[in-house]
Design goal:
- The two termini are 23 Å apart.
- Strands 1, 2, 3, 4, 5, 6, 7 and 8 form an 8-stranded mixed beta sheet that branches.
- The protein is 23% helix and 37% strand.
- By secondary structure, it is an alpha+beta fold.
Length: 150
């Protein structure tokens, strides 16, 4: 059974999942930073197993950043990343957020585009990996979505 947990401190389940995905699988060295101390952390569990997570932090009075979106490798393709993003956006909307920004790995930008995010700015390297900044106005429909369809 899937369930979400949100925390003001970095849960060990999110720490383990991020280490597994970003450090062990993708080779990043600098995964944990001071932002973790001021972020909201969202973890999606299937039973007792953490299968996806993200963190959220304010960037302005009505603007937030979602980052460190991770899905367990053997659970990808099951729409868990989409579920985490939808839950995060809903939580931020309740906090008055009107805009959400993120830094997407270029290889994942299509995923965020399907969720309604648009690229702003040029490609850049974060550690060794190409990234692009993306943003979305909350309440806007995903790109290509038609009314009455999912």
């Amino acid at each position: 059974m899937l369930r979400f947990e949100m925390s003001m401190t970095l849960p060990s389940a999110a720490r383990s999942l991020r280490r597994e995905v970003f450090m062990e699988e993708q080779g990043f060295s600098y995964e944990f930073d001071d932002t973790d101390n001021r972020a909201l952390h969202l973890v999606l569990f299937d039973g007792e197993e953490a299968v996806a997570c993200c963190r959220m932090f304010p960037e302005g009075p009505d603007s937030w950043h979602i980052g460190r979106v991770a899905v367990k490798k053997d659970r990808r393709g099951q729409h868990l990343g989409e579920a985490v993003m939808n839950e995060a956006e809903a939580a931020l909307a309740l906090k008055g957020a009107k805009k959400v920004a993120l830094s997407a790995q270029v290889q994942a930008a299509g995923f965020y585009k399907k969720l309604g995010y648009v690229q702003v700015g040029d490609e850049y390297l974060d550690e060794h990996c190409p990234h692009v900044d993306m943003e979305k106005l909350l309440g806007s429909a995903p790109a290509g979505a038609k009314e009455g369809t999912k």
